[in-house]
């Protein structure tokens, strides 16, 4: 998927309006990215892309850029 | 706070499923009288229109939807919220009962009851509680449990299992959603005279039907009995009750 699609995917996961999710958005800016939101993200990454986060990867996820980097590492972002 | 209404849904949009008949219709009418803007969901447009004829002067919207088509629920709820604005509440009153003794209660008989009584309710809750659907200040969810979730009712193993699951789900949802100020409760009605219960009881012999009715100290309930309790639990003024399964049974389970 391309960058726009990836940002829309993240917006959908956290139930945020698409315009609220940008390259500069941090976890603290997203209400739905709380402890339960992390579980939702993990499940969606696994179900949608077969990405199972390691503990280190999970701890590193603090920004939208981190999620995009994860997609790139796993070959899901053009 | 003299003069403040005890129950007031002015400005609040509430989804009610099973609004075509019985308890769902009665809840719709009660909420309308309390000022709610209603979104009525049912399978039959004509029956839903009959419900609207009894509503107060408030706005309403009708959605014809088969709630056993679970994948259709989220898109429809998102669509209606884009149309009417943020949703405050949900009452999932659609449900199914079936009297079937264990000997004839094969595994495939569980699915239709669980599909509508439990899974549809949870899927509706998931949709309504989306951060881009529900009011930002929180809201209220009401599912319909049953006294069959509390006491044994012969011939109702699949139904009671589905309602027991509803009761358990309500407690979990209440805790999970509390920090967003979303309250989740259930009412557990006893025997209420509706088309569904009349049909379910019709398989019993006359004598047995009478015994069932006489087992209720205050007699058989009316849909309006459930509706008043539903309005109380859903009301925006009721800010500190969540995770409960309120029994409304004319004293049946007190025996």
Largest interface: A-B, 7 and 5 residues
Largest sheet report of chain B: 7 strands, parallel
The separation of the N and C termini of chain B measures 38 Å
Beta-strand percentage range of chain B:
5-15%
Please work out how many helical segments of chain A DSSP would assign: 4
Assembly state: heterodimer
**Strand-residue fraction of chain A?**
under 5%
Helix content of chain A: 40-55%
Protein described:
- The complex is a heterodimer of chains A (78) and B (255).
- The model of chain A has no long low-confidence stretch (mean pLDDT 91).
- Chain A is mainly alpha-helical.
- In chain A, 21% of the residues are buried.
- The longest helix of chain A is centred in the middle third of the chain and has 15 residues.
- With 255 residues, chain B is of the alpha/beta class.
- Chain B has eight helices and seven strands; from the N terminus they run βαβαβαβαβαβαααβ.
- Chain B has a seven-stranded parallel sheet, sandwiched between helices.
- In chain B, α1 crosses α8, α3 runs parallel beside α4 and α4 packs parallel to α5.
- The longest helix of chain B is centred in the middle third of the chain and has 21 residues.
- Chain B is globular.
- Chain B starts with 12 loop residues before the first strand and ends in a 7-residue tail after the last strand.
